[in-house]
Amino acid sequence: MYLKKGFLLLYSMMQKNDQSLLINEKELKKIGQRIKHLRKAKGYTNPDKFSYDHNLNRSQYGKYEAGSTNLTIGTLVTILNCFNITLSEFFNEEYVKLG
Fold it and tell me: What domains appear along the chain, each with residue ranges and CATH number?
């Protein structure tokens, strides 16, 4: 009986974590799409050239654009400084439309 309740509780917690992981992955993809759009708008067709010109780690930057890895607020701010935009400008209605 206790084992069954424990299993159900654990299963319920795993379901919630899975949902939050999906939400986080979706947000990372949106952030990556927005960064990629900004890079292209700045005239860079190649992410490697952009990262090289702005002294960013090439492989990490590519992962950020792909939305395949987490990034800190500090890293995001560093990238946004390359575009001369603020966090509020980044997370504007264009970001929301990526939905």
Answer: 2-97 (1.10.260.40)
CA 55, CA 7: separation in Å to the nearest integer?
A: 49
* DSSP H or E stretch at residue 84: none
Q: How sure is the predictor about 24, in pLDDT bands with cuts at 50, 70 and 90?
A: confident
Asked if residue 49 has pLDDT above 70, the reply is yes
What are the residues whose beta carbons fall under 8 Å from the beta carbon of 60, sequence distance 6 or more? Answer: 69
What pLDDT, on the 0 to 100 scale, is given for residue 20?
55
Measured between its terminal Cα atoms, the distance across the chain in Å is 43
Instruction: Answer yes or no: are the C-beta atoms of 63 and 69 closer than 8 Å.
Output: yes
- Residue 54 · residue 82 · CB < 8 Å: yes
As a whole number of angstroms, the distance between CA 10 and CA 49 comes to: 47
The single-letter DSSP state of residue 43 is: T
